[in-house]
Amino acid sequence: MASMRCSADSPLSRPAITVQSLSKFAPPHIPDDVIFDILLRLPARSIIRFKSVCKAWLAMLSSRRFVDAHLEFSKVRPSMLIVPGEFSRRTAFQFQVGYYRYNGGDVAEVLHNERIAADERTCCGGQVQFSKPLHCDGLILVSTYDQITVCNPATREFLTLPKASAGVGFGRDPCTSRYKVASVFYERGVMDGRTIWILKLEVLTLGSNVWRRIADPPDLNVRISSVHVRGFIYWTTVRRENNHPKVLAGFSLADETFSETPYPPCIERGYVHFAELEGGLCSAVVSLTCEAAKVWTYNGTEKATWTLRFTVQLSQETITTTGVWHNYLAPPKLTFHGKDILIRGGHKLYRYSTETGEMKKVDVAVEDLRYYHPENNSDKLFSGDKVSFHIVKYAESLVPIREDMTVR
Description:
The protein has 408 residues and is mainly β. It contains 5 helices and 30 strands. The protein has a single domain, classed as Neuraminidase. Residues 24-76 form the F-box domain.
């Protein structure tokens, strides 16, 4: 076989490369709808990073169509958000709100930490007092005595709203796709020479930063806690004229009017908690002995009825006591998570399967987590004395807080 020789005067000949020969190495064209379908399955932090790829991707990933599609995909596989808040008297009355996402197993992912200003009225006995966080489309609203804050833990956007009462509701207007906060409170008035308290309501649309006074709601005694279901915010209320029966006051975020919904037909007395289940309104009634919880679902048609779905037998592990002598039962808190129910008893967390009836302790309960300590910039285990926490159903989203997305 003849050897090949090279010399400096006669360089190696290279094969000619034509455009036609390069075409087989060029990446194939991927249709935009395929790229769209692939990207919406990614976590929010990856999507935010991909916005810098090119202007076309930025426009697509910021569009209302993509944000809504990503949200619907997230709702199919919801997670839980564990929200602790720690008070620090040294740092000008601030406390740290942490957002820990729990998908199952023994890992809780830290999504975001945020400091919120507070004062002596918010911090009772060294512990931060804030109402149960409200969730809507990946946005979390936290209300304290001083202020209301809205956060998207996935995008780390954070917004402080003008001061309002503690009795707030939060949800999405199904007609305009705008997010609204409703605040109920009482104003002093005089009738027939005697002092009365009149129920009032104000609404703030995210992006406007202004509270609007709504026509006076029905003459009801409204409880602070609320739940948002399909464009309605529900409060537990009692008619004033006879202090009975209890009703649910439903506030429509679309036309901003009130309507009344009958209370569940609970024969026995108990601790009642309202929530959203499978896109509808439901109530969980824990018996006074805390031995069982009955779950009712509401059929909001012309023949409005409540239907008993199932009964959860609660174990002694979920029951805690309160009071100076620990002589009062503290009912467990129930949060619906797909076909399971997360039950918080004290500082422990349990998962109950509605299919098998099995209940087991969640290893990543609040007492097992570490929390950020703002005073020494370190993590520490839950101590129970200065940390209050809540469990919230959560679906990750790209919904912006400060932008108007109704025209895109």
